[in-house]
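Changelog-adjacent note: as of this version, every example in the card shows the full chain rather than a window. The one below runs 212 residues end to end.
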Amino acid sequence: MPRKLVPVSTIDPDTGHISMRRSDPWINNFNEYIIAACRSNMDIKFIWSGSDAKALVYYITDYVTKMSLSFHDTFALVQKSITSFKNSSHQIDKESAIEKSRKLVLRCYNTLASQQELSGVQVASYLMNWDDHYTTHKFQGLYLIQTERFLQAELNEIRAQQTLELATHDVIDEDVFDDEVIDNENNNEEQFQIQSAEDNKKYVLVNTRIDY
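Full-length structure tokens:
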């Protein structure tokens, strides 16, 4: 679609819109240095405003996360693989369920992989045995499941230890309370002692409590 010609670059003071100069309706926006370095077609656009930046972020996010195969195409290919697997004459009745499941998953994967779109860069990187990513730092793998299990085990151990300490503390408190009750009961009871009277031939009971 031809674009509108703009003889001179202008800025609208009311809206802030910038109109870049265009001398040919069929040529895309380009940067002479970048196009010379890349040696390929380009359609460059300078992000002037916040609305353009938001639109660009949405476009890039939607582009990099799109699936090469739609859901209905994927389901159709999987159904085709399952049908082909059922009608295969190479199946052995003595095969275990695990082996049959493995072959079925492998058949589905190969069918989907054969329909996967690959770019020229991906193919060239694979043939040249290049890395599929480049990073400036060395990262350490984090095994999340093992970490969660370790933390859960430590938490359970701490909870069990706290429960045991609380139970021991309650038992000690009950023992102290029982000793105090026994002492109080003993103090409340009258205590007698056998002593000899003035006449050595007689004995009397003497109450030793003096807190009447």
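Structural remarks: The CA atoms of residues 193 and 206 lie 5 Å apart.
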